[in-house]
Amino acid sequence: MMKYTISVLFILCVLFLPLIGSLTKWYPSQTQTCKMTAFECGFEPLGETRIPFSMRFFVLVVLFLIFDVEVALLLPILTKIINLSWSTNMCVTLMVFLMILLFGLAYEWKEGSLNWVTQS
């Protein structure tokens, strides 16, 4: 009985969620100016509230995350290599992993993604 209950609830959710989502299209959205402005403790906004996001900063942050994850993946591998002997399979895997990341870093460096300030 329990497995049928879960199945029926799942089917009902799958059927009714799109229905509920489509209901939001029928109701007109009411935009109010006070809801569209940024909250600054009751004061009028001093400048433009919707400033464009810097894509150079985004690329730099993504590169930082990639190399941060690289370090997180390399530390356990290096501790395992120190405790055990150097096997050929482990060395080849580590070298391929490092070469892919170093080629990616060289490409980003050559492309200029790591330069925060543009040279004129």
UniProtKB/TrEMBL annotation:
It catalyses: a ubiquinone + NADH + 5 H(+)(in) = a ubiquinol + NAD(+) + 4 H(+)(out). Keywords: Electron transport, Membrane, Mitochondrion, NAD, Respiratory chain, Signal, Translocase, Transmembrane, Transmembrane helix, Transport, Ubiquinone. Its main location: membrane. Residues 1-21 form the signal peptide. Pfam families: Oxidored_q4. GO terms for cellular component: mitochondrial membrane; NADH dehydrogenase complex. The keyword Transmembrane helix applies. One of its GO terms (molecular function) is NADH dehydrogenase (ubiquinone) activity. InterPro entries: NADH_UbQ/plastoQ_OxRdtase_su3, NDAH_ubi_oxred_su3_sf. Its EC number is 7.1.1.2. It is found in: Membrane; Mitochondrion membrane. It is a multi-pass membrane protein. The chain crosses the membrane at residues 57-78, 90-107. Belongs to the complex I subunit 3 family. Core subunit of the mitochondrial membrane respiratory chain NADH dehydrogenase (Complex I) which catalyzes electron transfer from NADH through the respiratory chain, using ubiquinone as an electron acceptor. Essential for the catalytic activity of complex I. This is NADH-ubiquinone oxidoreductase chain 3. The gene is ND3.
